[in-house]
Design goal:
By secondary structure, the chain is α+β, with helices and mostly antiparallel strands. It is about 60% helix and about 15% strand. The protein has ten helices and seven strands. It has helices at about 1-10, 15-40, 50-75, 75-90, 105-155, 160-195, 205-220, 240-255, 290-295, 315-325; strands at about 200, 225-230, 235, 265-270, 275-280, 330-335, 340-349. The strands form two sheets. The chain has a five-stranded mixed β-sheet. It has a two-stranded antiparallel sheet with strand order 1-3. The longest helix is centred in the middle third of the chain and has 50 residues, at about 105-155.
Amino acid sequence: MKLYHKLSQISFLKKSYAFKFLFVAFIGIHIPLIGILFFVLYYNTSISPTSILIFSLIMTLLATLITLVILNQLIKPIAIASKSLNDYRNKRRLSVLPTEYTDEAGLLMCNIQESIYEAESFINEKQDLIYMLSHDLKNFAGNPQGLAKLIIEENPSESVKDLAALICESTDLQFRYIDNFIKLLNEQDQVVKINQELRVVNFPNILPFINEQVEQRLLDKNIKLSVNIELDEAKLWIDEGLLIQVLVNLISNAIKFSYFDSEINVRIFAENEKLTITVIDKGIGFDKDQIDELFKKFTKMSRLGTAKETSTGIGLYLCKKIIERNKGELNASSEGKNKGAEFRIVFEV
């Protein structure tokens, strides 16, 4: 940026990025010619044609090298603008670009800067509005639920009591949908903002945190969780907390769709220079043509678990988003209904 800044101080180059390139190229082309003229005119002894040829080649190569280095420095504004835009798109990281230049590159940086801040402002305002509307919707849904509960407390006829119960069930569903929607927004925001860098993940260390969150669910259905760790640690792009969240979601999903007194197997291993984590259950499974539907947001495949557990419809969607944003893959497979399911996470290592 220093070279670009200095050239921008020259009046006839100030407003044109193309003129800056042409100016540098013009000087680079004429350096050999000027050098040859001085060499011929001021060299005291007689000059052979071979000497002139060798000197011309050296000057041309040197001038070409210097010109390429300078032109490489001159494209810094484009590179910085591109990195800033890429950082915001992939990491939601805000950069500060210089906006005082008036040529094409300067206008590009200025427009990118303004667009990024406008997008960030729009996202924040949109989320604030959604949270406000969600809060109000919960209040509106709470009013009929409160009235329905009052009706039930008055010991009405069975038909009225059943209708009031249906109102309570319907409003509970609305509450759950709103809570899941807010959770989706929060977790998507967390996934986008996480800083990506290689981290050492120690698998025996994260196991207690996973067990703590799924232990009660396992006990409720008398399901055994078998964990086989064949690799103690690995360098991954994913944050340890996010990996725990994904594994808890996958194991909880396996518990939900597993039968009582069954077993869930988790295996962490290295294969073909890749880290692989599998979560395998012996539950209700799914048909092969339903795989794509599994990972959709608010999927229509939301089903009741084997103990009538409800499904949010966003758990697997978030898991796939988290894994893919951290340079991994999440896939699912099943041999069919009542033949169990396997969820496989793969990271390059």
